[in-house]
Each structure stands twice: as C-alpha cells, then as structure tokens.
Specification:
Mean pLDDT of chain A: 88
Strand content of chain B: 5-15%
Structural class of chain B: alpha+beta
Number of strands of chain A: 10
Radius of gyration of chain A: 17 Å
Number of strands of chain B: 4
Low-confidence stretches of chain A: none
Order of helices and strands of chain A: EEEHEEHEHHHEHEHEE
Oligomer: heterodimer
Largest interface: A-B, 38 and 33 residues
Largest sheet of chain A: 6 strands, mixed
Strand content of chain A: 25-35%
Distance between the termini of chain B: 30 Å
Radius of gyration of chain B: 34 Å
Low-confidence stretches of chain B: 1-6
Distance between the termini of chain A: 13 Å
Shape of chain A: globular
Number of helices of chain B: 10
Number of domains of chain B: 2
Chain lengths: 225, 327
C-alpha cells in the first residue's frame, strides 16, 4: 500500500437545497489495493459519499481529493478523464436494453476510442472474469437480475479502473448472488485498485475481508482503519 | 496490472492518440446514427419533409430572383436613349455625335433618322390613317428634327441615367434627350422585391427549420436519456454526449435539402409548359437558370448547417443537467 491515499475526504460536508445535511464533517482515506465497505441505513449518506468521490456532486464544505487533486475543482473538460479511471456499479445495473451484452460491456472502451481488436479482447476478458463468457450476443432482458448485475460489473472493470465504486450492488439480489458479487468486487482489489462498496447489509459486509466505514445521519460512526 | 495504475488520474492521452480516438469515435457515432435513422425511417422522413417543404419556398424564390435577373437578356430587353437634334443640323454635325457614341463602349448606336426620313415616315403614318394625305403637301420637309436612337445596357441606376442625360444634352446641336428606361426600372423594382422576399423567407423558414430540427432532436434525446446517463458516468465528455445528436441534426438537414430539391424539381417541371409559351412569344427558348449542381450542393449544405444548429440548441438545452440525473 502506498503512503499517499488515492482518495482523501477532508472534513467534507454536503448540504442539499432543502437545507438537509447529508454528510457532516467527514474525513477518510482510501488506498490502492484495499476494499472499503461504506455501511449504514438508508439515508445515512452512503450514496452522497460515492457521488462526491465520483464527481457527480460537489461538497458544500471541505475537499474530496483524488491523487491529491480536489475533484470539486475539476473543469468540465477534466472530469470525463477522471471518470475514465473510476468504475461504477449501481444497484440498478443500468444496462442499455437495445444493445447486446458485448456492446454494453464494450461501451467504456468505445468511448475511449480503443481499437476494435483490443475492445473484443478486453470485453471477453471482463465477461470471463464475472463468469459470463459465451453470453456476449444475448440482450439484457435475456439475463437474470444477478447476471445483469455481473454484466454491470464487467462493464465497470473492462477499462481496469484504479478506483471502483459500487452503490448497493446487491440491493436487488438474493443472498447467494450477493455473495458472488461481493466476491468479485473483493477480487478486483487484488489488481491494486481502491474498491469502495456501499451496502446496508452488515452481515454480508462482515463476511468479507475489508475495512468498514459506517455512517449514520451523515456522520462517521465506525472507521476501522 | 498495477503498472497501469501509475498513470495520472486526470491526464488526457497525447495529442496524436487523442486525434485517432476522436476519429474512431466519429466513425462509430456516424455508423450508429445512420443505423438508427434507417431503423426509424418514417419518423425521420416527417422531419425531412417539413424541412424540405419550408426550405423549398425560399430556394424557389431565389431561383425566381436569378431568373428575373436574366429576363432582360433572354427576351432582348434593353434601355434606350432618343437624341433629338436642333432643326437644320447637318450630317457632319450628326457624325460628331456618332463619333462620341462610338468612343463610349457602353452605348450602342441603333439608328440615325435624318429629318427627311422622319418626314417620310410621318407622311406614311398620316396616309395610313387619313383619307386626305394631301394636307401636308407643301410643308417644308426639314421642319422635323433629325434624331438618333442609342441602346443602353441594363444595370443603369437613376443617378447614372441622369448623369448620362446631362452629358448628352451638353453635346453640340442636341435639342432634347428622351430616356426610355422606365420599364427597366420597373423590372429592377420587381427584382428587388423578389430578392427581399427570398432573403426574408430564407431567414424565416430557416428559423422554422432550426426549430423543427431542434424539436425532433429533443425528442430523440429524451428517448435516449437513460443511455446518455450511462455514457456520462462511463466518462463520455459533453461533446461525446452531443455528438450523435449533431450527426442526427446533420442527417435531418441533408434529408430536408434533398426533399427541397425534389419539390423544386417537381414545381419546375409543372410550370415548364407555361414558361415555354411565354418565352416563345419573345421568340426565345425557355430555360431555367440556376437549378444546377452548384445550387443543389449549396442548398443541401445550408440545410445541413441549419440541422446542426437545431441539434446543437437541443442538445445544449437537454444535456446540460445530465450529471444531476446520475443515480
């Protein structure tokens, strides 16, 4: 693990227009090659935290630093380059229904303008990693929810991102499928990436090796660094 | 794999690599948009038809303007100046004026009428119209002035005409100068009216086309909002998000231009018989000037630009707040 954290939150607060404070004075560090589970009940601020790291929102106070740079101060032109290094998995896999599994997983590489031969190789590699090799030509509606979530995961790792964030990735899945997804996320940290997973399922989180970072009403209650 | 992670999190690739990626992305988008349009041909055709219908009107007026400019040449219409000399002007004095006209390349001498010829012509007219031609017998045949008819090219405005008239009046032995140019002025006013109409209609219908494209592209964006959100969180830039819709606007424009050309071709073929009979009454062959490859390319390109403007407006409006929708 390197000394400099990949992501640092420095006394971060986030207030929405309604005046409700979703995060309050949060400080934390996320290093390469680690898995962090952000836990807490619904409304604890987990999603807000991930959105700040992803650059979809800006902190009202404090700083979110990625490799030492304040994400809140990135220009519109810089933000996409940063996001190309961040894989994202949501509760809803957000697959594009009119595109095949192959095309869905290939999207990040096509956005990057990768060569088609390279795209093919890497898509097959990512699908194989989530145990979906051979399903490339199917469409999302032909897959189960668990398989769709794995396709979402394959799409988020096909670029080999340095940061992988997952927001309730098992929210719609049964316990067995949930374990499969958690296993895959945990495996990905072995590539050297910082994996940050938000989940309300404490039991599931505790079954896997990783750091627990608990939130309650926007405040940190556990940070077992 | 860890080596990959040493790259800068915010660095764009080098310029050469970015150019290649940019080109690949354009090819991918062009291919995808063409495929989508071909799958929804009916919806696209409606937009093309509305654009084509709107733009055929100013384009048709432009053609009318071009052809009105050619009317003078086609039917041999030219302006003229009648110069009347003082009575008793000799042939040698008239020859001096003739030389002056020859030195002016814009003027063309059409006819010289001596006082004797003018008298003979008058006698002929009177004898045709009265039963008593003898009433002019005994009148001095030099009582009528000699005259000269000079042809002017088109394009003389009022100021130049006045200057020319003043110049001729200053010449020796010139008594009176009559300008025969009113009908050309009327034609010029008519041309100016058509010109203003086509420019005005091009602006209005061009604006309408931009709005039509903008609305069509807005609908397309809204129907693909989920997909666009995915693109955004996968790291597509704003430009990449807009790109498919800019292509869509361009395709709408090109289609609209082709429909406008088709409408014009149909209209021209319908009015051709009437034009033929009009032109043949002047002993000329009818043909429409301006409806050629150059005109067609300019029309299609203009429509494409209007389509792109419409798409740009729609994508700017619809995609600005996409980040807030990422959930």
């Amino acid at each position: 693990m390197s000394q400099t954290p990949l992501i640092s939150l420095v006394r971060v607060s986030k207030k929405f227009g309604s005046g409700q404070e979703a995060l309050s004075e949060i400080s934390a560090e996320f290093h390469e090659g680690t898995v962090t589970y952000v836990t807490g009940h619904s409304g604890a601020g987990k999603t807000t935290l991930l959105r700040l790291i992803f650059g979809a929102d800006k902190a009202s106070r404090g700083k979110v630093l990625a490799a030492g740079r304040d994400i809140g101060k990135l220009t519109i032109a810089e933000l996409p380059w940063y996001r190309r290094n961040v894989g994202v998995v949501f509760q809803n896999p957000n697959l594009i229904s009119r595109r095949s599994i192959f095309e869905n997983v290939a999207l990040p590489l096509l956005i990057d303008g990768e060569k088609l031969s390279q795209v093919e190789k890497r898509v097959r590699g990512a699908l194989s990693r989530v145990h979906l090799a051979g399903r490339e030509n199917l469409f999302p509606y032909q897959l189960s929810i668990g398989e769709q979530q794995r396709v979402g995961l394959a799409r988020s790792i096909v670029r080999r991102p340095i940061i992988l964030i997952a927001d309730e990735p098992t929210g719609n899945l049964d316990p067995e499928l949930s374990r499969t997804i958690f296993g895959l996320l945990s495996e990905y940290s072995a590539t050297g990436a910082a994996v940050i997973v938000a989940s309300h399922d404490i039991n599931l989180v505790r079954a896997y090796k990783g750091r627990e970072f608990s939130l309650n009403q926007g405040r940190v209650i556990t940070n077992d660094e | 794999m860890k080596k990959d992670f040493e790259r800068d999190l915010f660095a764009a690739p080098k310029l050469g690599r970015r150019l290649v990626n940019w080109l690949r992305d354009h090819i991918r988008v062009a291919h995808e948009v063409s495929k989508n349009v071909s799958l929804e041909l009916f919806g696209s055709f409606l937009t093309w038809f509305i654009m084509g219908l709107s733009l055929s009107f100013p384009a048709g007026l432009y053609l009318a303007h071009l052809n009105a400019e050619k009317v003078e040449g086609l039917v041999g219409l030219k302006g003229g100046v009648a110069i009347y000399f003082q009575t008793g002007t000799t042939e040698s004095e008239i020859a001096i004026i003739q030389d002056w006209i020859a030195q002016n390349p814009e003027l063309e001498l059409k006819e010289i009428r001596s006082s004797e010829k003018a008298f003979v012509d008058l006698m002929s007219i009177i004898s045709d119209q009265t039963e008593e031609p003898s009433i002019l017998e005994g009148i001095d045949h030099t009582v009528l002035p000699a005259s000269m008819l000079v042809e002017l090219p088109s394009g003389y405005d009022e100021r130049r005409l006045a200057a020319l008239k003043a110049e001729i009046e200053e010449l020796p032995r010139v008594d009176f100068v009559a300008m025969q140019y009113e009908w050309l002025e009327r034609l010029a006013a008519f041309q100016s009216l058509i010109e203003n109409l086509w420019i005005l209609s091009a602006l209005l219908f061009g604006l309408a086309s931009v709005l039509v494209t903008s609305i069509s592209v807005s609908f397309a964006i809204r129907s693909q909002l989920e997909e666009l959100k995915v693109f955004q969180f996968l790291g597509a830039s704003k430009r990449q998000g807009r790109r498919p819709f800019i292509y869509l606007g361009a395709i709408f424009g090109i289609g609209g231009g082709l429909v406008a050309l088709f409408i014009l071709a149909v209209v021209l073929s319908v009015i051709e018989p009437s034009l033929s009979s009009l032109y043949s009454s002047y002993g000329r062959e009818a043909f429409i000037v301006g409806f050629d490859l150059y005109f067609s390319l300019i029309l299609i390109l203009s429509c494409m630009v209007l389509g792109i403007i419409g798409a740009r407006l729609a994508s700017g409006r619809e995609l600005d707040n996409l980040d807030d929708m990422i959930a």
